[in-house]
Model the fold of this input.
Amino acid sequence: MKSSTELRRNGEFAQIACLWEATARKLGNVHPTADFADTTYTDFLLSAMVVGTVFRESTTTSVGERVLLATEKTQQLVGKNTNLGMILLLAPLTVCCGEGGLRSQLQEVLERLSVDDARLVYQAIRLASPAGLGKTNEQDVREEPTVSLREAMQLAADRDQIARQYVNGFTEVFDFGVPALQDGLRRFGTLEAAIIHCQLQWLARYPDSLIARKNGPATAEMVRERATEVQDRGGIATPQGRAAGIALDRLLRSDGNQLNPGTTADLITACLFVALRENMVTPRTLFRWNIEDWL
Done:
């Protein structure tokens, strides 16, 4: 039986992770000094509040129910899709309680996903209506699913980073993103710098799914190559790397923010949740990166 105390703690960690992700001055994303034309930093703060409230107060351990409820509440309060990817990643993580480590608990949660979970998640996706959502020949989200949520995610895993986490047990989150976050904390000493470092590491390794969905895989690969150039110049540890990062930020924000690396932001949120759950960071960890030549 899941502990209500553990579920509430997980909800608190989910809210903190969302707040930290939104507040860090990451490339191409909304943050306190950079809004989009149709989405503001305040929208993300409100969305983080929704996630925290829903996951803290809900006693259901159904991943599908949690995804749909958080999506409905976000639409009611914010009226736009600010956090569907975060909700999809955080929902299975926040029901991990009891004996065993987080990773083994998560594997059990993913293995238990049902057709009903798929039906509820499909409903949430239709409600949020994410940008670049195309049509597929098999198990399309506009139709009623006939397979479990994990099986449905398998069908999209080759083109969607979030779906891939459901299939591989969040391998990239645990084995790539969290270590990158820890490396940033060791190198820079603040959580904001660690988040930016993690984002650049991720963008240089994996083409962002949202960019690919909206602009095509070639454009996503171009962004990956540009992020690699930033890293080759020292990343945020050097003036040359920071200058290259600022230039990449301008590119990502061009043409109505069409190159917003939103999926990478969602994955970083999951990494932050894991770091909180595993006591790698605490809510009191120093956040602000005080440096003059950054965004």
Observations:
- Residues 50 and 73 are 7 Å apart (CA to CA).
- The chain has a mean pLDDT of 95.
